[in-house]
């Protein structure tokens, strides 16, 4: 194994290593997450380690399946940890790649099955690249939770010197909002998925993540979090402060939580309860045609 690179997500150091013969096939995509990857010497501490190999056969696991999805993803118990297998629709019986994971999701061994993984081009590079395996979201959600990081399905960045997250379901306009704020001169960190983490047991920080959307914004930057807004499409723009009960319901709705892993689900719930007690949350009703930037700028100034 050769240490290929390191990256950080929400301040959590991740070391990625792989077999020498895979280096030509696993090329990090600069467009997606290249700027998250840093030279080996730049991080002093790794909290998560990922090893990538060309071992096609996953280790034998028991019959206990704890989560599955459309026959394309299956997670099973493996000893004291877990086995995660991914499949193509055309070959649902043999995993295209798999991961053996310790119980804390801090050591992840990934095996690639080249007989199933289809070459993406004539140079036999893989579909995707190093970043697609090293930042796989299903693996990273519990791994980051172990370090007090909660992901939020939303765009975010700095507006009027305040850290804001605008959360909402797919298709609600998060990427459009991120573009509008960028055009207005504000610094956006991501247009699809933000991360929140409590810093030094005091203030909450909002981080960009590698998981972007149509606006293509994914910056490894952070700022103190001032508020979370939950986006709803309406004819007129209005902002309403949510109650504590409403806030908890919304944050759990728009945070990807692995409830199938009870210990991690409890950790996410605890983080959500801390978050709603310390960070104000609002309902943002707006029509994107109304250019709601000014209304949100006014809210940011008032925080």
Please give a structural write-up.
This protein has 303 residues and is an alpha+beta fold. It folds into two domains: 2-145, no CATH class; 149-302, 3-Layer(aba) Sandwich (Rossmann fold), CATH 3.40.50.300. The protein is built from six helices and 18 strands. A nine-stranded mixed sheet has the order 3-1-2-4-9-8-7-6-5, with helices on one face. Strands 10, 11, 12, 13, 14, 15, 16, 17 and 18 form a nine-stranded mixed sheet that branches. A hairpin with a 2-residue loop joins strand 11 (154-159) and strand 12. Helix 4 packs across helix 5. It is elongated. 41% of the residues are buried.
Short description:
The chain has 303 residues and is an alpha+beta fold. It contains 6 helices and 18 strands. It folds into 2 domains: 2-145, no CATH class; 149-302, Rossmann fold, CATH 3.40.50.
CATH class of the largest domain: Alpha Beta
* Estimated share of beta-strand residues: 25-35%
Count up the helices: 6
CATH architecture of the largest domain: 3-Layer(aba) Sandwich
What brief labels describe this structure?
20% helix, alpha+beta, 6 helices, elongated, 9-stranded mixed sheet, Rossmann fold, 303 residues
Give the helix/strand layout.
Layout: E1 2-9, E2 12-18, E3 37-38, E4 48-53, E5 65-69, E6 73-78, E7 81-86, E8 97-101, E9 107-112, H1 130-134, H2 137-145, E10 149-152, E11 154-159, E12 162-167, H3 174-183, E13 187-190, E14 194-199, E15 203-207, E16 222-233, E17 238-241, H4 244-253, H5 262-278, E18 281-286, H6 293-302
Parallel strand pairs: 2-4, 4-9, 12-16, 16-18
Antiparallel strand pairs: 1-2, 1-3, 5-6, 6-7, 7-8, 8-9, 10-14, 11-12, 11-13, 14-15, 15-16, 17-18
Helix pairs in contact: 4-5
């Amino acid at each position: 194994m050769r240490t290929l690179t390191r990256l950080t997500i929400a301040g959590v150091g991740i070391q990625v290593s792989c077999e020498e013969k895979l280096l030509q096939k696993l090329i990090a995509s600069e467009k997606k997450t290249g700027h998250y990857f840093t030279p080996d010497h730049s991080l002093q501490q790794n909290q998560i380690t990922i090893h990538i190999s060309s071992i096609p056969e996953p280790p034998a696991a028991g019959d206990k399946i704890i989560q599955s999805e459309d026959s394309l993803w299956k997670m099973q118990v493996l000893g004291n940890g877990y086995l995660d297998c991914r499949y193509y629709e055309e070959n649902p019986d043999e995993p295209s790649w798999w991961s053996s994971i310790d119980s804390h999701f801090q050591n992840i061994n990934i095996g690639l099955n080249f007989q199933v993984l289809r070459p993406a081009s004539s140079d036999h590079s893989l579909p995707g690249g190093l970043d697609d395996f090293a930042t796989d979201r299903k693996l990273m959600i519990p791994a980051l939770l172990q370090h007090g990081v909660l992901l939020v399905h939303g765009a975010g960045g700095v507006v009027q010197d305040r850290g804001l997250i605008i959360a909402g379901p797919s298709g609600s306009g998060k990427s459009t909002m991120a573009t509008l704020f960028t055009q207005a001169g504000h610094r956006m960190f991501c247009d699809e998925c933000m991360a929140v983490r409590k810093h030094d047991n005091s203030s909450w920080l909002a981080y960009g993540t590698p998981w972007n959307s149509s606006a293509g914004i994914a910056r490894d930057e952070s700022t103190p979090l001032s508020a979370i807004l939950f986006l709803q499409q309406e004819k007129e723009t209005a902002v309403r402060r949510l109650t504590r009960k409403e806030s908890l319901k919304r944050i759990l709705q728009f945070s990807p939580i692995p409830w199938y892993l009870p210990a991690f689900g409890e950790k996410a719930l605890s983080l959500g309860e801390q978050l709603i007690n310390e960070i104000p949350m609002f309902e943002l009703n707006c029509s994107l045609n109304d250019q709601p930037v000014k209304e949100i700028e006014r809210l940011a100034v008032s925080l």
